[in-house]
Design brief:
Length: 552
């Protein structure tokens, strides 16, 4: 088989189906909201199509803090209903994806003179624990001396004390988590394609007819037909509703947030939490063998944002003030950055006059029955399972038949499949192939990343042990994983692989990736004859995410 074929096959065959078939539901946007909608509806038996004008999870959903959390900070604004909902959603995610969404301790330090005393917040942490059904480990009080002993990197000279509590984090990254929902949807017959933009849609005899443009192969605009249209365009939901003429009660307010990734600062697998100079919670989060620091919360009007000097100074200044680093972190220490805008759901007038940073982080799913149109506003990765369920109920209420309404569309495979995988892995001696710098056994990582599909990888390694070799040095990525990615992960640009299906571009500097001896082979596997072009496209800085069309 020619190496170019996998790439051609999945995306191109889906594109021709988008042109030829008609669908029950068409979803615009492959971020978390679009991805769970696709997985839920396809799982329940609807004929689903999904398009994204960039890559899957190529916008907000690759720039989060990677936390599945109950929103402890919303207790300060007495939004207990939201905290309760998010805690229950967090628990549900942890139960459903035990190897991906894992409990992690938040080691929190408070400065002297902070607006609350440590004992006061410690009581709040207990309340948070109760609101979360006592699902995690209990909170713990930390005096300055204890902080000093347990986490010497924390500068305690100005510390009044602190406390430790639990939430959860995504062990891989957000974009991978989102892609896995799209992959599940594809496995259930969903027709999805990245780099296909919606230019707007019209109603025609009970159908939505959407005008689409393929940003990879070009060609004339084409049409996609569906009974129901779901607008899951994240920060562009309002813009897309303007294109289709859909009035809504909710709209989006936008808030920019950035993170910086630096070398690993904390030995323990825990999040360090502080209150930054602007009084907001500020985290030092583990990311493989690196550390991710952030975030910021800046009101913006336009989703097209980037990391500014001011953002970098804010994050570095805050971290240097709170950690004992020997040598303060500077720009040279930054390995990569993340930047996104939170789409926050507000009712038309309700956001005005409120403290912007305290705008509610609840999602809102709005439906117009007369046009069979659904818009998804706001939300979080944390409550994604609710969004999938809510959207499916609404689609059903619009008269679309869901042959398997009770189908459980999310979660890791049953224990029997898991046991089978680990048994086979043991027989194969898989963990013996674990790279020395790896933070966990190979079997654990492959199961978390691919679940039942990891059994196929064992088969590849059994046939050819070279498949277990790390292909791109320092990244833990095996030859057989790249081959599988080429077949099943709709990798269209090198950035899709380096930044979203894997987190290589987050944890390695561009110059190191470029020098990596295995990169050329990985590109050959992914892109065949087009490998050189795709390499040049990535390193010459051509954006993988095309800019908004002028009509926006
Ligand atoms: C800094 C930051 C930190 C965060 N931290 C957390 C956290 O720790 N935990 C948590 O739960 N949540 C967190 N969030 C919130 C969470 O990331 C977002 O709410 C969520 O990712 C939004 O997903 P979405 O699907 O609505 O939007 P997006 O991910 O933006 O997806 C929308 C998609 O629509 C596509 N699109 C737009 N217009 C078109 C068009 N015309 N045609 C085709 N496609 C189109 C875009 O290309 C995009 O891929 C954070 C957000 C930010 C910014």
């Amino acid at each position: 088989m020619k190496a170019t074929e996998p790439l051609m096959k999945l995306r191109r065959s889906n594109l021709s189906k988008l042109r030829q078939q008609s669908f029950d539901v068409l979803i615009v946007g492959g971020g978390i909201n679009g991805a769970v909608s696709a997985a839920a509806l396809a799982g329940k038996g609807a004929r689903v199509a999904l398009i994204d004008r960039g890559d899957i999870a190529g916008l907000t959903s690759m720039n989060s803090s990677n936390l599945a959390w109950g929103g402890i900070k919303y207790m300060e604004t007495w939004d207990f209903a939201l905290v309760r909902k998010l805690c229950v959603s967090r628990n549900h995610l942890m139960r459903s994806f035990p190897s991906t969404v894992q409990e992690i301790r938040f080691f929190t330090t408070l400065a002297r003179g902070f607006r609350y005393r440590p004992r006061h917040l410690f009581l709040g942490a207990w309340l948070y624990w109760f609101i979360g059904n006592c699902f995690t480990r209990t909170p713990r009080f930390l005096g300055p001396a204890r902080i000093e002993v347990e986490e010497p990197i924390v500068d305690t000279r100005d510390a009044a004390g602190g406390f430790e509590y639990s939430d959860a984090y995504l062990h891989d990254n957000d974009a991978r988590f989102v892609f896995n929902f799209v992959r599940t949807a594809l496995d259930r017959g969903c027709v999805a394609a990245n780099y296909v933009e919606s230019l707007g849609a019209r109603r025609e005899g009970g159908w939505w007819v959407l005008r689409a443009r393929d940003h990879i192969d070009g060609g004339p605009e084409f049409e996609i037909r569906a009974r129901v249209l779901i607008n899951a365009a994240g920060p562009f939901v309002d813009a897309h509703n303007a294109l289709t003429g859909e009035p809504t009660v909710h709209h989006h307010a936008l808030s920019k947030g950035i993170h910086l990734i630096v070398k690993r600062l904390v030995a323990e697998r825990r999040v360090l939490a502080f209150f930054a100079d602007d009084g907001r919670l500020f985290f030092v989060i583990p990311m493989g063998n690196r550390t991710c620091i952030g975030t910021t919360d800046t009101p913006v009007n336009d989703p097209g944002v980037g990391v500014t000097d001011e953002d970098i100074e804010f994050v570095l200044g805050n971290i240097n003030k709170r950690l004992r680093l020997g040598k303060p972190l500077t720009r040279e220490d930054i390995i990569s950055t993340r930047c996104g805008v939170r789409p926050l759901a507000v009712k038309s007038e309700a956001g005005k006059g409120r403290d912007f940073l305290n705008l509610s982080r609840k999602h809102a799913v709005e439906m117009r029955r007369e046009t069979a149109h659904i818009s998804i506003f706001g939300g979080k990765l944390t409550d994604c399972l609710n969004v999938g369920d809510e959207v499916s109920s609404l689609v059903r209420s619009l008269g679309i038949t869901l042959p398997f309404p009770a189908y459980k569309w999310y979660g890791e495979p049953p224990a029997a499949v898991r046991d089978e995988f680990f048994h086979q892995a043991r027989l194969l001696g898989l963990d013996g192939y674990t790279a020395p710098e790896s933070s966990e056994p190979l079997s654990t990582r492959l199961w978390r990343r691919y679940a039942a599909e990891a059994l196929g990888l064992l088969e590849n390694i059994r046939e050819d042990p070279r498949q277990a070799e790390v292909l791109i040095k320092g990244t833990e990525y095996l030859r057989c994983e790249v081959a599988q990615a080429a077949r099943r992960e709709m990798i269209t640009k090198l950035e899709d692989f380096l930044r979203r299906r894997s987190k290589i571009a987050l944890v390695e500097r561009p110059e190191d990736i470029r020098r990596s001896p295995g990169l050329a082979e990985a590109c050959e596997i992914l892109f065949g004859d087009a490998a050189a072009d795709k390499l040049a496209e990535y390193f010459d800085g051509v954006p993988a995410h095309p800019p908004a069309s002028p009509s926006f």
